[in-house]
Amino acid sequence: MSAPSALVLKCPNCGEVVPHRVLRGKIAGKDEIVFEGVVRCSKCDAISNVVTREPKPIVVPLILSWLDRSEKTSLEFSPDEDVAIGEELDLGDTRIAVTAIESAGRRVGATKAKAVDTIWAKRIDQVRVKFSVNKGNRTVPHDVLAAPDEEFEVGEIVDLGKDRAVVHHIRTRIRTMRQGRVRADEIVRMYGRIVRERTSR
Ligand SMILES: [Zn+2]
Question: Which of the four CATH numbers 2.60.120, 2.20.25, 1.10.10, 1.20.1050 does domain 6-55 have?
Answer without folding.
Answer: 2.20.25
